Amino acid sequence: MRLLDTGARHTLARVLAVACIVAALLVWWHRRKAIAVVIAADLDAVTAGGSTRLEATVLRKRDRSKLDVAQCKFSWSTAAGSIAGSGASVEWKAPTDPTASVRVSVRAECDDREAKSRISLAAEEPKVPVGGFAGGNNRDPSAVTVRIPAVTTKPEQRHEGRGDAPIIDEIVVEKTQLCKGEDNLITVKSHDPKGTDDAWIHTVIDGNLGASLPLNYVTSTTKRMISVASKDGLSITFAEVPHVTVLDCVTPYIVEVGYSLVPNTEDMFHFEIRVTPKGGARPFEVCSYEWDFGDETGLSTQTKWTDHSYLERPQVGLESTFLIKAKLLPCDGSGSISGRTALNLRNMYAAQKEFKKISGLIIIPDPRYPERGPDDVVRQNARIRTFEQDPVRVTKITYRDTIPSVGPDPQEAVDVSVSSFLGRETVGREWITVAVSFDMKQNPSWIMRQYTFEGKTSAGERVYGSYTLMAPPKLDRETSEKVLDPEMKERIQTAMRLLNKKQVTDEDMLDLQRQGKLPWKDPTDRKPAVPPPGFVQPNTPAIAPPKPEPPAPPPAASGGGGPSKPR
To answer: What distance lies between CA 489 and its chain's CA centroid?
Structure first.
């Protein structure tokens, strides 16, 4: 056998290299032209015999970008029900037969490219009668399954404690079958057997306060309990949430609505939305958000966050529960998705009046944080009102200062003229704004001044309220830590310029981030800054380097199984 000479081997290698390049280009060209089609459905619009809109979106496989559907021809088919319309968007009418197995398919032809997709309803066990869409019954991110309508049950219940325990009349379960990760609205209706304290019984569902709450389900085996306590808390009724079947299916998107109390406010909450694709679904591009705050008010925003106040809610009974809903409208015009959460608020003013016979004044700081001016005067407004139908009379106002240089305890109470402080002697349901201030030059170590308001209602009940003015920290080059991180320094300077402030807080910067005016930055994703040689933060004592530790003695020998002892 003759071996190839060196020149022939080089020629063969070049031919193979060119062939590999040509093959790679062909694969790239094929992938570049490849497309995929995804079907979105309006998950909240279907009942047996009803209809819903199906929307097809065509994507380029190479980068998941959208293709203009006007360039494509669509062919729809269904195993049950009927299709109305043509093109990328059609109406599908569900069959009236609750046991029908439904599969809807679409084929998209775009120039010389073709792609297929389908929506499959649950055909395997467990059989699900047609009711409304709820998510997929397989791992296909475009698949959906049908939802069981709400059911109402009168539960078995047991009572513990002393006295007349509340009676649970019924438990309403929104869905008895759903996909893993979906939420399910559970509503408990109960009453006080005496007929006098219905507004004051206390309901807990699966460890969460409130009589109507959406619960998240990931398994069918979890036992969820309900407890309803009497007004005095001495008797409790227990029941179990009716069984809910969690199907082996995937809902394409999980929409979470989170909330937190806005600092230094009363009943002002910040809401924010997070969308998590499941089962390989593409990211959901949102163009607008429609909010329902559960108190007959709503809002439409372009951002995934908003703030809302519940301070003006009617305070009747022990608690108020609000079901907050958010509907996310996509940019491509396909079906929307939604999320919800429940907010339970203790009605402190109603409870104070019922249990302590005290009518509380509502006092809100405005702005939320006191401001210290260049003249060293701390200023803030106090907004004051009452929930009483008739104005209440304020008969006494006092304040106590806390000054550490004088003593650790608050100083003696100082009386204040009611008419000079409020400008009147009564407080009604309309807000009164009072300017409050303290001159720090009088005593630089002053920390806070707490005001106390006392009075009577028209019915003779006690009126009480309190408000505290606190000294904000003084920020200057001598007492503040220097910002060493160049990136953080640039962000602070940008925020100061946008807000036209000489000082900004973390909250100011977070608000700018949410508005898109300041780039998002994870505070934990920051390299520690290296200070210049010899730099020491203000008011930080110099620390000598630690002395080296003496070498440890060698371990002592051990003659047996016990611990060794030093010699």
So the answer is: 30
d(CA 279, CA 59): 17
CB 253 within 8 A of CB 276: yes
Residue 481 CA to residue 514 CA, distance in Å, equals 27
Residues 170-181 as b or e (16 or more Cβ within 10 Å = b): ebebbbbbbbbb
Q: Give me 551's structure tokens.
A: 């070498």
Give the DSSP letter string of 57-126: EEEETTT--B--GGGEEEEEEESSSEEE--TTEEEEEPPS-TT---EEEEEEEETTEEEEEEEE---SSS
Whether cis (ω within 30° of 0) applies to the bond prior to 367 is yes
d(CA 502, CA 508): 12
CA 440 to chain centre: 40
Which residue, 269, 171, 180, is CA-closest to 213? 171
Amino acid at 197: D
If you count them, how many residues does the chain have?
567
pLDDT for 130 equals 30
Tens of pLDDT, residues 292-307: 999 999 999 988 999 9
pLDDT of the residue at 180: 84
- Buried b / exposed e across 268-290, counting CB within 10 Å, b at 16+? bbbbbbebeebbebbebebeebe
Residue-level pLDDT at 542:
38
Which residue bears the tokens 């106390």?
Answer: 452
Q: For residues 70 and 87, is the Cβ–Cβ distance under 8 A?
A: no
Could you give the C-alpha distances from 528 to 431, 492, 524, in angstroms and in order? 48, 17, 10
Cα end-to-end distance, the chain, whole Å: 81
Q: Which two tokens stand for residue 75?
A: 């062919």
- Whether omega before 155 lies within 30 degrees of 0, making that bond cis, reads no
- Separation between Cα atoms, residue 318 and residue 230, nearest integer Å: 11
Q: How many CB atoms lie within 10 A of CB 506?
A: 9
3 state SS of 138? coil
Regions of the chain with pLDDT less than 50: 1-3, 43-45, 98-100, 120-148, 523-567
CA atoms within 13 A on the CB side of 415: 6
| Contact (CB, 8 A) for 273 and 328 | yes
| Cβ proximity of 301 and 308 under 8 Å | no
